[in-house]
Amino acid sequence: MNFLANKIRGTAMHILLIEDDADTAAYISKSLVESGHNVQHAGDGRDGLFLALDQTFDVLIVDRMLPGLDGLGIIRTLRNANDKAPVLILSALGEVDARVEGLRAGGDDYLVKPFVFSELLARLEALVRRNLPANEQATVLQVGTLEMDLLARSVKRDGQTIDLQPREFRLLEYLMRHSGQVVTRTMLLENIWDYNFDPQTNVIDVHISRLRSKVDKQFEQPLLHTVRGAGYVLRADS
Predict the structure, then answer these.
(1) Does residue 100 register a pLDDT over 60?
(2) Which of the chain's termini has less CB crowding within 10 Å, N or C?
């Protein structure tokens, strides 16, 4: 199942990492989070399969040799359940026969350990991009005079550069992808903060306020509007 919020290079991916080696898992998780992505980790095959079936992920990283249920077993179960989320297999087994077996089991790509993180990240981005609907493959988003370049990770309005923190960038991207539509707090919690519940904090209000101060404050026409009792909408007309 594809998580259709942010899907191409420079944007946040929702990733499930199924890896039993603690050091490898910590390294991958830390590097992905620092790159602006959301990561959930499972340390054995059965827990990983449960998470994969219970939640929606953009892409899965699955170690081949796992306790409880091996990586190929996980992939076969997902494919039998018609779960089409792309899977990158990690394995110390680099022989051609091993790679072929992994791909035939339903894996979409195969990366041999040890690996370089930049290659792992590039492969994840390619897998997610490959699974995008055509209408989500744009690399530049625009609402009125506000423009976001997803590849350059830059935002401009009326030609003026707007500096955003990673979370603010993701929040704005989500609003721009849904421009003209009311976006609820629940949608933001699930897609930007990865919460399946309301933590009863003002985290959304704080980030919306910061974003509004950067996107609207210096400009005559406001783009970001609060819809009382419903949520928020980004639109070019007031």
Answers:
(1) yes
(2) C
